[in-house]
Each structure stands twice: as structure tokens, then as C-alpha cells.
């Protein structure tokens, strides 16, 4: 079929499909310790479009963090399929999943997970240094620019122990962005911060996501912070539900 003869509906469907960064189909995750089986995720479907900001809201124990780990390839589903940039993701070998994560995904956690023996600049540099063909000078320049963008140009040489909670989370955000990911996955990124600092970090996340036109999926229990998302999904007992 030529482009001239293609229907508008067909063209829109194809464009929509090509803009999907991450897709989950009928995802289940069951944990089995030999005596008990716990179904943490129960048949979830999800797609995140390029440039879209999605919040997943749920109470503690609803399965939010497990969902993020499965979507990000840090865990594998018991049943279902995960697609990253149109390619099957969950069935890849661990080494290849790690490679795809580094190419396409950035992670921000509730606890920053910065390496304490390295300063802010060195922590931000690390994900990009894993890529072949990058020089330290190129990486350093990019990391410096990102730290400036998150308001930490004056704290680059400080180690995590010398930074406040909000500053450490800004470093973690810069680290997630240094590889130019297609999608940021954030797990309660403000959950360990006071209200004012949390609002500042969330606003920065939204600003950077908009500027870079990347997708962002944030899981949180804080509905007030989630309101700025393009789409809000509610999760309970490992499944979606209509909060209304």
C-alpha cells in the first residue's frame, strides 16, 4: 500500500505504534518461597508514549516497585511480555538487557544509590563511561552541563556524604539523564524528602522531561505530586483500578 493510498486511520495507528517507548502486555509476577505463592502483579497492560509523563499511584504493597523493576528489566515477569522500543525485552539474556537499559532507560530511586567514595561529577559520569567509543573528556563535559542544569555546578566536587538529601537526589537525576534515555523510570523519587524539597525535585523532573521530550514513568503514593502528570494510573493489589 502506498503512502498516498494509506487511510488516515491506518497512518495514525502506525505513527502511534512507532511512538511507543515501553509496552507491557498481560504482565504477571509471582513470588514463590516453596511454601507460599504471592501474586504481586496480576495481568497488567501498559504503554508509554514518547514524551509522555505517566504517574502510577498506589499504597505501599500495591506492587508499584515490582512493576517498575519488571518494566526496567531488573526482574522478569512470571507471565506476559515487555517491549522496549518495539523489541521484546524480557526474554533477552541479562547482559543484553543491561546493554538495552544503558541505551534507552534511566533510573531514579527513593534512595539515591550514589557511590559514597566518588564525588557528584564522578557519580554522574559512570553510566556513560560504560559505553564504548566515549572519551572521558566528552563524558565529563556532559556531566558538568547536567549538574549545572540541576543547580549543582558549585557542588560537583562534593561527595554524597557532603550533600543534602535534595542535592543527592538532584545528582541521581543528572546521573539518570547522562545517557540521554528515551524513558526515565522513577521509584518514589521524592519519598525520602521533606515536602518542600520533594515539590522542588518533582518540578525539576517535569521541567527536564518537557525540555528533553523524553518519556517518564513515576511510581508514588503521593497524589498531590502526581497531578502534574499527563496520565495518572491507580494501582491496587497488583492490578489497575478506577479511582473514581
TrEMBL record:
Pfam families: ABC_tran (PF00005). Residues 22-243 form the ABC transporter domain. One of its GO terms (molecular function) is ATP hydrolysis activity. It is an enzyme of class 7 (translocase). Transmembrane segments: none annotated. Its main location: membrane. Its EC number is 7.6.2.-. PANTHER family: IMPORT ATP-BINDING PROTEIN, LIPOPROTEIN-RELEASING SYSTEM ATP-BINDING PROTEIN LOLD. NCBIfam families: LolD_lipo_ex (TIGR02211). The complex is composed of two ATP-binding proteins (LolD) and two transmembrane proteins (LolC and LolE). Part of the ABC transporter complex LolCDE involved in the translocation of mature outer membrane-directed lipoproteins, from the inner membrane to the periplasmic chaperone, LolA. Responsible for the formation of the LolA-lipoprotein complex in an ATP-dependent manner. Belongs to the ABC transporter superfamily. Lipoprotein translocase (TC 3.A.1.125) family. This is Lipoprotein-releasing system ATP-binding protein LolD. The gene is lolD.
Amino acid at each position: 500500500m502506498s503512502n498516498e493510498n494509506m487511510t488516515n486511520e491506518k497512518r495514525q495507528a502506525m505513527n502511534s505504534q512507532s511512538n511507543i517507548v515501553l509496552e507491557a502486555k498481560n504482565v504477571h509476577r509471582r513470588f514463590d518461597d516453596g511454601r507460599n505463592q504471592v501474586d504481586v502483579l496480576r495481568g497488567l497492560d501498559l504503554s508509554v508514549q514518547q514524551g509522555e509523563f505517566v504517574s502510577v499511584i498506589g499504597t505501599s504493597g500495591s506492587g508499584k516497585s515490582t512493576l517498575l523493576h519488571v518494566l526496567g528489566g531488573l526482574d522478569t515477569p512470571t507471565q506476559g511480555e515487555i517491549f522496549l522500543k518495539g523489541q521484546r525485552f524480557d526474554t533477552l539474556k541479562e547482559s543484553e538487557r543491561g546493554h538495552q537499559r544503558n541505551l534507552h532507560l534511566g533510573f531514579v530511586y527513593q534512595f539515591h544509590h550514589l557511590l559514597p567514595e566518588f564525588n557528584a561529577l564522578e557519580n554522574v559520569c559512570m553510566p556513560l563511561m560504560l559505553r564504548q567509543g566515549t572519551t572521558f573528556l566528552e563524558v565529563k563535559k556532559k556531566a558538568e552541563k547536567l549538574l549545572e542544569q540541576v543547580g549543582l555546578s558549585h557542588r560537583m566536587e562534593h561527595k554524597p556524604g557532603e550533600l543534602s538529601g535534595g542535592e543527592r537526589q538532584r545528582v541521581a537525576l543528572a546521573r539518570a539523564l547522562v545517557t540521554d534515555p528515551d524513558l526515565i523510570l522513577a521509584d518514589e523519587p521524592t519519598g525520602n524528602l521533606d515536602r518542600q524539597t520533594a515539590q522542588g525535585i518533582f518540578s525539576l523532573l517535569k521541567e527536564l522531561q518537557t525540555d528533553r521530550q523524553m518519556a517518564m514513568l513515576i511510581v508514588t503514593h503521593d497524589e498531590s505530586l502526581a497531578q502534574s502528570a499527563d496520565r495518572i494510573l491507580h494501582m491496587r493489589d497488583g492490578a489497575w483500578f478506577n479511582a473514581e
